[in-house]
Specification:
- The structure is a single chain.
- By secondary structure, the chain is mainly beta.
- The protein is built from three helices and 33 strands.
- It has two domains: 164 residues, Single-stranded right-handed beta-helix, Pectin lyase-like (Pectate Lyase C-like); 262 residues.
């Protein structure tokens, strides 16, 4: 695979050496650390003042600083010392909205940041419930789907839109009422060594990057109810490009690292290097393009997965009529994974919905294109998978001679469990071309009636040095309407 040249390291070195004009203590601006005084106007005055006087850092010492929405300005960074906590108001009327409701905005700014060893606490459960209360009184308009206000009506902790040279480092983000931090149409974004604990309410994505270029997410920890690290594309004329996700640990009651569901423009030139995913309900890696976007040129290397519902889910869908996605040129290398026998997120604050799961544990790897729209040029190398097995044909079964009865579900919301029961416990591939597996170990821990590898409408697949360890199994591969399959 040949990827475009990545420029991330150079720009971040230059950005990291930028000299701030001055440090300003928050107390200078009558910003109170008592946890009860609403500081919104004082903090905004301080940001405006620092911006107007050449830029610098607004420094928060130990204490709790209550505020509603504030807007960062160019050349201003919020610096939170250890023990400093910025606390979001629980009154929804203290927040403003620009596309999304947010605690900290950055709109069309340059050289902005939130750094230090402090905490941003959104008090998300309380503010979300207060949003619902105001909707019930007719003071806020929202459809209240399933009794919850829509995600953009609840405040995210950080929303940066059309910003250049962004640095978020060292801080802890917790208790958002919706997505935690969203970077939308930004360039040169450096997210490093942050801790995200996002389990306060529904839709609690850990880190969201939408239609951004030159983004680095490194050395960070995410524990989230919804998707952990999620790339999105809302703009069919834009895409996520030149993204690095490295040295991160993710726990999720949805997907660990996901592209989509929003995938209008697409994703390209992404490196996912040396990460760990654990106790994750859905997929460790979910690469989905279901709104017409192009998803290409991705490397996943050195991934450690423990106790997850599914390892890898690749999906082309057609939720926008007449515009199926495209997915090609993806490489997976050096992956060790253990698929859970039970519910991987059992006991966490907001568990994934059990009714979504098939009854037998799904295949570890699912590649699902559409008829005449193949997923192409996918390579797996140095992969070690342990699957619980235990599938019972009397519990739930898709006979191999009925494989053409598995629905396509082109317009459905994409998740690895969307097809419910699938044949094959290790690998299921459908509507794909030029798929390669080399030096792969597949271990089934308990007896399972299913064939390890099932191919449906696959053209040109190569399985070389693939070791399959399954109790009482004779046939390892089932090929349906597939050709040019090499097993050696």
């Amino acid at each position: 695979m040949i990827l475009k040249k990545f420029f991330i390291p150079l720009v971040f070195i230059l950005f990291g050496t930028r000299l701030y004009a001055k440090d300003y203590k928050a107390a200078l601006f009558n910003i109170y650390a008592d946890g009860t005084t609403l500081n919104t106007r004082s903090i905004q005055f301080a940001i405006n003042y620092i911006h107007d006087h050449g830029g610098g850092r607004l420094v928060f010492d130990v204490g709790r600083y209550l505020t509603g929405s504030i807007k960062l300005k160019s050349n201003v960074t919020l610096y939170l010392k250890e023990g400093a906590v910025i606390v979001g108001s629980v009154n929804p009327l203290d927040y403003k909205k620009h596309n999304w409701t947010a605690l900290i905005f950055g709109l069309n700014q340059q050289n902005i940041g939130v750094t230090g060893k402090g905490v941003i606490d959104g008090q998300g459960q309380l503010v979300a419930r207060n949003v619902v209360n105001l909707v019930g009184k007719g003071l806020i308009e929202d459809p209240l789907v399933d009794g919850r206000a829509e995600a953009p009506s609840r405040p995210v902790l950080i929303y940066f839109y059309h910003c250049d040279s962004v640095k978020v480092k060292g801080i802890t983000l917790k208790n958002s009422s919706t997505w935690t931090d969203l970077y939308d149409h930004c360039k040169w974004v450096d997210i490093d060594s942050i801790f995200v604990n996002s389990q306060a309410y529904w839709n609690n994505d850990g880190i969201d990057v939408a239609d951004c270029q030159h983004v680095s997410i490194t050395n960070s920890y995410v524990n989230s109810d919804d998707d952990g690290i999620c790339l999105k594309s809302f703009d069919e004329n834009n895409r996520c490009e030149d993204i690095l996700i490295k040295n991160c640990t993710v726990r999720s009651s949805a997907n660990g690292i996901k592209f989509g569901t929003a995938s209008y423009g697409g994703f390209s030139d992404v490196r996912i290097i040396n990460n760990r995913v654990y106790d994750t309900y859905r997929s460790a890696i979910a690469l989905e393009t279901v709104y017409g976007g192009v998803l290409k040129d991705v490397i996943v290397d050195s991934l450690d997965v423990v106790h997850t519902g599914n390892l890898i889910f690749l999906r082309i869908g057609e939720r926008k009529k007449g515009k199926p996605g495209q997915l090609y040129n993806i490489k997976f290398d050096h992956i060790v994974a253990e698929i859970a026998a039970g519910k991987p997120d059992k006991g966490y604050s907001y568990e994934g919905p059990v009714e979504d799961q098939p009854r037998n544990v799904s295949p570890a790897i699912i590649i699902a294109g559409l008829p005449e729209h193949d997923i192409t040029d996918i390579k797996f190398e140095n992969i070690n998978i342990s699957h619980p097995g235990g599938g019972d044909r009397f519990y739930a079964n898709v006979p191999l001679d009925s494989i053409n009865g598995i629905p396509e579900l082109a317009d459905h919301y994409p998740e690895f469990s969307m097809f419910k029961e699938l044949p094959g416990w290790a690998i299921f591939i459908r509507h794909a071309k030029n798929i390669k597996f080399f030096n792969v170990s597949l271990k089934c821990r308990d007896k399972d009636f299913r064939v390890p590898v099932v191919l449906d409408d696959v053209d040109s697949a190569r399985f070389e040095s693939v070791k399959i360890d399954q109790p009482d199994r004779v046939n390892n591969y089932y090929k349906y309407h597939s050709e040019n399959i090499l097993i050696k």
